[in-house]
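Lay summary. Proteins are chains of building blocks that fold into shapes, and those shapes determine what they do. In this project we predict the shape from the chain. Here is one chain we studied, written as its sequence of building blocks.
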Amino acid sequence: MTKPYQIYSAVKYLIDAPLLFFSLWLASFYLPDDQFLIKEPFGIILILYTIIAWYGSAEISKLYKDFRSNKFSEEIIYILITGIIYFIFFTSFLFLFKKQYLISNNFIVFYLAILVFLVTLFKYIIRKFLHRIISKGKLVNRILLIGSTPAAKDFYDTINKYYYYGYKCVGFLDNQNTVLNGCPYLGKVDNLAHVMQEQPIDEVIVALSNADHEQIKQSIETCDFHGKRVRLIPDLYLYASSNIQMNNIGLLPVINLRSLPQDRYANKLLKRIFDILFSFLFFLILGWWLLPLIAVLIKLESTGPVFFHQERWGLNNELIICYKFRSMINGSKDLDENGKYLQAIPNDNRVTRFGRYLRSTNMDELPQFWNVLLGNMSVVGPRPHPTPLNLASIETVDRYMLRHLVKPGITGLAQVNGCRGETQTSEDMQKRVNFDLFYIHKWTFWLDCQIILQTIINIFRGDQNAY
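And here is the predicted shape, written in a compact code that computers can read:
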């Protein structure tokens, strides 16, 4: 980690302390005096404890890890987890010393709401400030890439597309003088020591093929000798469908291939309960008025049914009927003369004007909350594809059928990462499937919360791939 980035990390870490004080003061300022009474000298003890409890909670939740390459929605989830842990610590302390601290429940709720809001706001401001600094060429980690595998190409494309991750690739080494999407070729892998002596490099990324284990070992040893941080990128297409956990037996690293998280009954039950509660809340808060309004607007613009029913594949390849709001002209064809599925394309003349708005905001998918209540879909999961698109992808996309190991979802990890809309090539579909398989094997309840939050953000921000 570069020295400027260490300074940034320290600021990000220390800014929470004054926010704790300010939140306490703000809550005590706006609420009546009888809801926040402290016997002296226990006020100082409370302030010290809030600092210890907050940073202890953040350590447990890993709030201060490097979020440069993560979406802000994921950081918000970590803030919420920290807030929950801190709430437990804070209320437990007040319960143990209830004679010294006469603090009402209203004060606690108000104080914690202010604290979470301010922490989220300042984390966002700091993140945007970081992006601005990185765009000026500062706080950038200089990366040397070893290998030209598909995983290496994906890594290089990713750090170029998302510049605010703070990585700049100075070039790559490979035994074959290949082309890597514009990345400068700096020679063979054996040239690693010379390149590190000639150029300032902060980190080395090894993305060689698994068969090149000797060169991987030599590269790591060379980096260790020169005191450079090194990270490995495994073959993406080999490991995308595996739920991998690294353990050690003595000093020997061991790779465990475990069962799917959603195979466990407790996780399956938690996800189903969440799906039902979330769907009921949707219908209770939004669905009862929003769905009829959308239906009326669809009928006013074009003739035909309001809902569109389509056969798709669900859990274990079982056929399900997926419900959507009709966004195309009634009677539009799904297949061309050769029987190929016609995906929606930009400026598709089949899509109505209001339908274009529905598709860009994902609101055409809202009727699928009924699918969730029926039990054949989940709120979060791999998006179900129409049968013709499934049949066309089985032979061209690696491990495509593994995405049906769990229930399909209204939204998914692939969709919030931009993999939605038309898939023009098998590579586009492969990228979407890789996200789906990552989700399946790394599922957690908090990952679902992050995806839902990012979906809501995308609704307001818009998605260039939604058409």
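What the prediction tells us: The mean pLDDT is 86.
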